[in-house]
Amino acid sequence: MALSADQFYETSSPSVIAFPLTNAQVIYAGALVGIDQSTGYAVEWADTANFILAGIALRGATGDTSASPVVDVEVNCEGMLLKKVSVTGVSAITNLGDKCYASDDATFDVSATSNVQEVGIITRWYSGTTCDVQLYSLAEYQGISNS
User: Fold this and answer.
1) Of the four listed, 20, 82, 84, 133, which is most buried by Cβ atoms within 10 Å?
2) Left if phi > 0, otherwise alpha if psi is -120 to 50, otherwise beta: which for 23?
3) Which residues are registered as beta bridge partners of 33?
4) Whether the predicted pLDDT of 20 surpasses 70
5) Largest Cα–Cα distance in the chain?
6) What percent of the chain is predicted at pLDDT more than 90?
7) 23: exposed, middle or buried (C-beta count within 10 Å: 0-12, 13-18, 19+)?
């Protein structure tokens, strides 16, 4: 129904979201975090079907679904630029723009994973396997995983 008076919504920044964390799941600050679409809970990132990328954990947490309220993990969902990270398979400046995949919460690779989409792209190469990775935001990841 259309508004007939002012409507003031409770709002917050979309860059940091607190997601309920899977029971007994341990997340460390700086870890890639996913959402398990089969349960609705946040999880440590892995190459697992039904996981979508949420972002990077801002602080550590251990899930307790019997707690009241349920333990949350705070996640930066805006698509951070990770500087000077090791990415397996990168060898030269010609890797700029390559898709970057993650098989767990901190392992990056240019080779495709089996169950999840890329988490970002290579934006700068330094030497060897060291480069910058522009992570996708939660919304961007949803866009590529649904295409």
Assistant:
1) 133
2) beta
3) 44, 55
4) yes
5) 61
6) 89
7) middle
